[in-house]
Amino acid sequence: MSVQGKYALITGSSRGLGRGIALKLAEKGVKVAINYHQNEAAANDTLVGVRERGSDGLIIQADVSRPEDIRRMVKEVQAAFGRLDIFVSNALGELFTYYRPPLDLTPEQWDKAVDCQAKAFLVGVQEVARLMGKGGRIVAITYRPGGLTASWQPYIAQGSAKAALESMVRYFAVALAGRGITVNAITPGITEDSILNSLPKNVQDGIRAWHLAGWTPMGRLGTPADTGNGVALLCSEEADWITGQVIAVDGGASLMNPDFPLEIQRE
User: Fold this and answer.
1) pLDDT tens, per residue, the chain with 267 residues
2) Which CATH code of 3.40.1160.10, 3.40.50.300, 3.90.70.10, 3.40.50.720 fits the domain covering 7-193+223-252?
3) Is 162 assigned a catalytic role?
4) Of the listed 7, 98, 99, 155, which one is catalytic?
5) Which among 37, 120, 199, 261 is least buried, having the fewest CB atoms inside 10 angstroms?
6) How far apart are CA 137 and CA 131, in angstroms?
7) Domain locations in the chain?
8) Contacts of 88 (CB under 8 A, 6+ apart)
9) What gap in Å lies between CA 15 and CA 96, rounded to an integer?
């Protein structure tokens, strides 16, 4: 499943899931453009990790909630690489600027969530598609439970933006299929070194205990490297017949049934 010699742009790749994706693709010989918003030091650390894995790349500052920044970023990638083979839309924005329950959420906070994810994907795909030829790969990082459930009330803006991403993946998959470019989404499960670690400690502890008790059948939480492995699979030549899909990389957590107590499942 070679991706050796390919060129990738990964938004929000200085830390967390994006960093895990960047390092995994670098292991497989992909040159990586690492996008960051504010933390240049973290982006440089990721670039060091890319080079330690035998590949290379560059860092690019851009606020993906601003279409003009996305266009500039893609132009910088074109100047550096000449082409683009892989685009991963991962940037999250600042969750806690729009982390509000439905009755308290303002239109401005809603816009922040949509601008840095759904709108960023729209503009990003339109721009990178110009640089891609047959075999191009586009992957959005979503979180399907946030778009299908509603019990985590302050997640409304984020969950809605992620649901929009998954819908857009299907539309772009059809639009780009004739050019041999695939468009898919990966929905990770609960993952260490991610947004989880920014939540209050009691919330983190409760989530970990819940999943380690059996709600993730594989018996552990995910890692950024797990998500990176999923992206690498979708970017391989062998995945050229997979498009418009949302792939769960969650250790089986999405297979569990909340209607039944854990003790009577998996018997």
Assistant:
1) 678 999 999 999 999 999 999 999 999 999 999 999 999 999 999 999 999 999 999 999 999 999 999 999 999 999 999 999 999 999 988 877 888 999 999 999 999 999 999 999 999 999 999 999 999 999 999 998 878 888 889 889 999 999 999 999 999 999 999 999 999 999 998 898 887 777 778 888 888 888 888 889 998 999 999 999 999 999 999 999 999 999 999 999 999 988 888 888 876
2) 3.40.50.720
3) yes
4) 155
5) 261
6) 11
7) 7-193+223-252
8) 8, 9, 10, 11, 13, 18, 21, 138, 139, 140, 141, 231
9) 17
Asked whether 90 and 15 are in contact (CB, 8 A), the reply is no
Q: Which amino acid is at 15?
A: R
Catalytic residue from among 36, 75, 162, 171: 162
Query: E strands along 28-146, which residues?
Result: 31-36, 57-61, 86-89, 137-141
